[in-house]
């Protein structure tokens, strides 16, 4: 049988993945083994890089099915979208399957990352690292293992959880406290051993305060969804709400992260190449992208980094394919700067009109809505259904979006990406140095300091932190009530991958009501004006949520592989899956 938990990472010397080893895959594809790698400080750094690389692998290999796009499509703030041939994204929106193995690639990829982390944690000690570096490296490996398990646990719920390379080839499924307790323990240990340093940020590496932030996010989900404030960790210790609150307080007071002065400046459309262009929707406001000319975002805590060396082979994940997939569908809607500065893509995760209505009603003067989404009514001659679009609502999120740029040669022509103009002379792996599918290098922000402030408001009842987030948006203070805090998280963190987790931790009735609000919203399908008639496929969003509790199906390949190890290890499918009610055949009018 095969066992990816003996999978050895060799960072940049072996970071491509031509095959998709299943959880039980035992073939050794590497020339180095755990007996001789890593052996020194340089190889330890390579191994750590290999763990991080798994973040990009999931963006390249399985962007449709990774945690980020899944969490957007499954939430109440976005539909599935895309075209007729993008049934997988539409299925995610409907809490359904498009093939019983649709998530298997992502599942395999994340376990490869976990296997790398397990190997690193067992071998860093022999690499001759000084104490501070050793603790930093171990803390980063613990953080990344926690992050990969956080994504898998959020999606699949009931999964194997090996934390050692000595684990048996087949591991039993675990869920609830046993699974989430391990994630919390990794976060806690990482936060304790990593040095309290605020230097050298912007290189994509996490620090102790990132671990504290992830501890808070994971704890809030677990305690809300499973209804338990105290968690017994695998090491026998008890983690309490007060413990997590203290960690978040430390992050707020000592991390050195801070809010960017203007919310708009967090997002790439305010870059200096675009923002004052005559076609820019943001001209004349004085916005300035915090990451102009390789600047460091002081609010971004955990990000996925990209670079200028993507190719269509094994390094496609070095291009921010998430932006591409959520770009404006069909070139006819973007050519000639019609949608400037927003560029071409595949039209996935269109914004639900219900979010717009809720936001306008609750906070009509909130500038974050203008900073977070755009109506196609602002574009020049936008045409619905120009590329077999499905669930086309007329609203796009703009936080993760391809951003065009005007060429400075006087021609008036456009680059597909502003980075071609901001960083001239960079080497791209494409023929003409102007490729809308590859030239996407903006960071994906996974955790921002604003979220930590809102966790501080929730865990420590901090009115000051709550007010700080609103003040940055230019809004008056509000009382720190449960409803106001929930709304504030929805507006501040829109389209950043946290909303679906929030729905689930707020309780089943809350989640069902919010998800059902997508039913019947105005949209176009194949250019035909109508409504989002999701109930036709699955009996309604709330109905599917009640059946699944928001978990997706365990890939059928993994169930089959586990069965070969005997009844003791045979995996059980999650509730609400395995019947015709969970299968999506494709959108029909």
Summarize the entry for a quick read:
The protein has 589 residues and is mainly α. It is 39% helix and 6% strand. It has 20 helices and twelve strands.
Please provide a written account of the structure.
This protein is mainly alpha-helical and 589 residues long. It is built from 20 helices and twelve strands. The chain has helices at 41-61, 67-74, 87-93, 104-123, 131-156, 176-193, 208-226, 241-254, 321-325, 353-362, 367-372, 419-422, 449-460, 463-472, 482-492, 499-505, 508-516, 535-538, 541-548, 556-563; strands spanning 231-232, 238-239, 300-304, 328-329, 344-345, 373-375, 395-397, 405-406, 414-415, 444-448, 522-525, 528-531. It has a two-stranded antiparallel ribbon with strand order 1-2. Strands 3-10 form a two-stranded antiparallel ribbon. Helix 7 (208-226) crosses helix 13 (449-460). Mean pLDDT is 91; it is low at 1-30.
How do the strands and helices of this protein lay out in sequence?
Layout: H1 41-61, H2 67-74, H3 87-93, H4 104-123, H5 131-156, H6 176-193, H7 208-226, E1 231-232, E2 238-239, H8 241-254, E3 300-304, H9 321-325, E4 328-329, E5 344-345, H10 353-362, H11 367-372, E6 373-375, E7 395-397, E8 405-406, E9 414-415, H12 419-422, E10 444-448, H13 449-460, H14 463-472, H15 482-492, H16 499-505, H17 508-516, E11 522-525, E12 528-531, H18 535-538, H19 541-548, H20 556-563
Parallel strand pairs: 4-5
Antiparallel strand pairs: 1-2, 3-10, 6-7, 8-9, 11-12
